[in-house]
Amino acid sequence: MTYRAEYIWIDGTEPTREVRSKTKILADGDTPGIWGFDGSSTNQATGDNSDVVLQPVFQCPDPIRGGDNILVLCETLLTEDMSPHPTNTRAAARAAMDKYGDQEPWFGLEQEYTMVDPATQWPHGFPAHGFPGPQGPYYCGVGAIKIAGRDIVEEHTTLCIEAGLAISGTNAEVMPGQWEFQIGPADTVTVGDHVWMARYLLYRVGEIHNVEISLEAKPMKGDWNGAGMHTNFSTKAMREGYEAITTACEALGAAGKPEEHLAGYGIGIEDRLTGAHETQRYDQFSYGVSDRGASIRIPWQVAKDGKGYIEDRRPNANADPYVVAALMTNTVGEALAS
Ligand code: ADP
Ligand code: MN
Ligand code: MN
Ligand code: MN
User: Fold this and answer.
1) Residue 68: which of 128, 26, 112 has the closest Cα?
2) Could you tell me if the CB of 184 is within 6 A of ligand 1?
3) Per residue in 253-286, pLDDT tens?
4) 94 occurs within a structural domain
């Protein structure tokens, strides 16, 4: 008898990486080992030296195929010396975890996304050649006029739970056709693994319903909210006292740090971080309690309890969770270690 392993990896598409996958059929009792692919077709190699190695790093049940079938997330390695491929961002997340893992970093990522009609390239739920009513009723809305695509969200959530991913919630967003799921709390490497797996499952559910999933940061210009990936973060010290919370916020605002972080927070940052639509401008840094117009928000409950976590509101929906988590772990980790 056999089962199927879906090998999943992150490609080299510019400016925003895409998920790729292919299927391996295994005999019962065999485990998924290293494999490879044609990197010249994924912007990861040239044709004359095209092989890239797939190294399995995280696996879970395949809730779409069911049975004994599995999903296998892989790192990409160079054939020459089995070192991380230049597009392998998980390696940096591992390094951050090795360095500051003893601080017990936790992440909760809020992945926003937009459902798009493949034929019209227009958001799911927008009238075919026009616009819906202005923003206001859609966020966490209920009812057929306000909501489109809830069946897809429900299906995706069930698949994430069946796969054992750390999905912690979902909600309809401010723009029609825009939704969010949250992954966490999980450590620097695990949160990236689970976000990429959850993205994969979302694209697959989209195929079934003929809806394209877009992670574009500002899919509709004008008076429509963009799509972000708010990054909630804490360390053990932050979960135990307020001083570490303040230290973390100050470290994120230190000279050079806002620029360094924004460079890893996704494509189209200037289009989304305008200072309007619940964002701080990309060229300004601020933090504050309950402030959705700040770069970093301290939730009111955290201020009240005098401990907890902070929310970095800047990452775009199209950011790489490994890159975001590594930056955060290193910047805050370094400040808290000294
Ligand atoms: P918002 O109010 O900004 O919409 P959400 O409820 O969407 O917030 O997301 C909050 C996220 O923060 C969840 O993924 C949750 O797991 C995560 N979270 C909660 N506590 C912590 C913590 N101590 N450290 C890191 N993340 C946390
Ligand atoms: Mn949220
Ligand atoms: Mn949101
Ligand atoms: Mn948020």
Assistant:
1) 26
2) yes
3) 999 999 999 999 999 999 999 999 899 999 999 9
4) no
Using CA atoms, how far apart are residues 189 and 326, in angstroms rounded to an integer? 8
Using the mean position of ligand 4's atoms as its centre, give its distance from the Cα of residue 305 in Å.
19
pLDDT one-digit tens code per residue, 90-112 = 999 999 999 999 999 999 999 99
Residue from 173, 179, 182, 295 to probe ligand 1 pocket by mutation (most atoms less than 8 Å from CB): 182
**Cβ neighbour number for residue 83 with a 10 Å cutoff:** 12
Q: What is the tally of structural domains in the chain?
A: 2
CB distance 230 to ligand 1 below 6 Å:
yes
Q: Which of helix, strand or coil describes residue 16?
A: coil
As beta bridge partners, residue 8 has 21, 73
Measured in degrees and rounded to the nearest 5, phi and psi for residue 216 equal -55, 140
Whether 228 is in the pocket of ligand 1, judged by its Cβ within 6 Å, is no
Residue 287 Cα, ligand 3 centroid: separation in angstroms? 18
- Which residue range forms the structural domain that includes residue 164? 105-337
How far does CA 200 lie from the centroid of its chain?
11
Mean pLDDT of the residues in the chain: 97
Distance 181 CA to ligand 4 centre (A): 11
Same domain for 17 and 127: no
The torsion defined by the Cα of 190, 194, 200 and 206, in degrees rounded to 10, comes to -160
Do 187 and 51 belong to one domain?
no
Whole-number Å distance, alpha carbon 172 to ligand 2 midpoint, is 10
CATH number reported for the structural domain that contains residue 178 in this entry: 3.30.590.10
Q: Which atom of ligand 1 is nearest to the CA of 184?
A: 16
The atom number, within ligand 1, closest to the CA of 239 reads 23
Looking at ligand 1, which atom is closest to the CA of residue 238?
Answer: 23
- CA separation for the pair 301, 249 (Å, rounded): 17
Q: Please check whether residues 255 and 133 belong to one and the same domain.
A: yes
Find the 110 Cα to ligand 2 centroid distance in Å. 5
Q: Which of 54, 88, 122 is the last residue of a domain?
A: 88
